[in-house]
């Protein structure tokens, strides 16, 4: 077994099309077939079914694909680790962040970090928690900060901050006249919610369901700012991080709905792949951001 064969298998398993793989890797289709055949002989299993000139991964192929991805990721990380030693303080960090953290917590810190460590380039990808999890598994990002649960046993997490979720209403919403409304009143309102896969949405829905609230999701929006704007316009209620609407609440364009006995505090996590080797630049970034208080 060698990395060349492993790469050929990996690309073939992803594309299930030898023509595409041949063009991508600049090799012939017979070379692809030979490499896969040699791996199958070494493993004494069939990795692909070939039916009506189409490729399908076998169960054994799916298992092998998972390990092949991790091996190739580790190989790339080893190369990058050696390069980072030669570069000293120069390097690049690719960070993932779920929407709230990426928009409201990281920007100021990254600006200050970049001023102090000018040789380190910082890139950030902002997506919902579900997409961030996928990027970690594919080694597209080095580590991430998320507000929702991750489910792969390949990812390790560490609580780094706490965050309060609140319900918001427009300044002229009739709900503001009720001193401490019961949470059940939510059933009479349209709810503006984050999209599926969002950590915020997962936490809010678990809370509402556990309290037997039959809520009505009128809109699903991918950005907290858009939710705030829609609610501000008088359309329903929203539930988002207090960090996202702190200024709007202070200036009175939005109101916090103080439901009776409602307190929804969540953990915000630092997450990484368990096989990820963090270089000194990444460790420095993590050490510094752990000092941030929100």
Automatic annotation (TrEMBL):
Protein family: Belongs to the LysR transcriptional regulatory family.
Keyword DNA-binding belongs to the record: yes
Gene Ontology MF, one: DNA-binding transcription factor activity
Originating species: Clostridium cavendishii DSM 21758
Regions annotated as coiled coil: none
Listed Pfam families: HTH_1, LysR_substrate
Domain HTH lysR-type: 1-58
PANTHER family given in the database record: HTH-TYPE TRANSCRIPTIONAL REGULATOR (PTHR30126), HTH-TYPE TRANSCRIPTIONAL REGULATOR CYSL (PTHR30126:SF39)
Protein name in UniProt: DNA-binding transcriptional regulator, LysR family
Keywords: DNA-binding, Transcription, Transcription regulation
Gene3D superfamilies (UniProt xref): 3.40.190.290, Winged helix-like DNA-binding domain superfamily/Winged helix DNA-binding domain (1.10.10.10)
């Amino acid at each position: 077994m060698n990395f060349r064969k492993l790469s050929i298998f990996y690309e073939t398993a992803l594309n299930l099309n030898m023509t595409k793989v041949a063009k991508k890797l600049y090799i012939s289709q017979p070379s692809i077939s030979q490499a896969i055949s040699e791996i199958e002989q070494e493993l004494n299993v069939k990795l692909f079914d070939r039916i009506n000139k189409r490729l399908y991964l076998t169960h054994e192929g799916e298992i092998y694909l998972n390990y092949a991805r991790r091996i190739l990721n580790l190989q790339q990380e080893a190369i990058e680790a050696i390069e980072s030693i030669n570069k000293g303080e120069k390097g690049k960090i690719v960070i993932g962040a779920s929407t709230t953290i990426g928009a409201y917590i990281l920007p100021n810190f990254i600006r200050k970090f970049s001023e102090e460590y000018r040789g380190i380039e910082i890139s950030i990808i902002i997506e919902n928690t579900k997409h961030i999890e996928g990027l970690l598994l594919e080694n597209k990002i080095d580590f991430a900060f998320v507000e929702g649960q991750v489910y792969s046993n390949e990812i390790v997490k560490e609580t780094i901050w706490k965050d309060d979720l609140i319900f918001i209403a427009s300044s002229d919403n009739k709900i503001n006249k009720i001193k401490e409304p019961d949470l059940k009143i939510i059933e009479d309102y349209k709810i503006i919610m984050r999209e599926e896969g969002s950590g915020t949405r997962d936490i809010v829905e678990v809370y509402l369901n556990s309290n037997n609230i039959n809520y009505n999701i009128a809109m699903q929006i991918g950005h907290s700012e858009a939710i705030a704007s829609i609610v501000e316009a008088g359309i329903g209620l929203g539930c988002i991080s207090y960090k996202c609407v702190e200024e709007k609440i202070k200036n009175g364009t939005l109101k916090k709905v103080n439901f009776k006995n409602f307190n929804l505090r969540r953990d915000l996590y630092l997450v990484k792949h368990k096989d990820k080797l963090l270089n000194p630049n990444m460790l420095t970034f993590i050490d510094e951001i752990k000092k941030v208080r929100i």
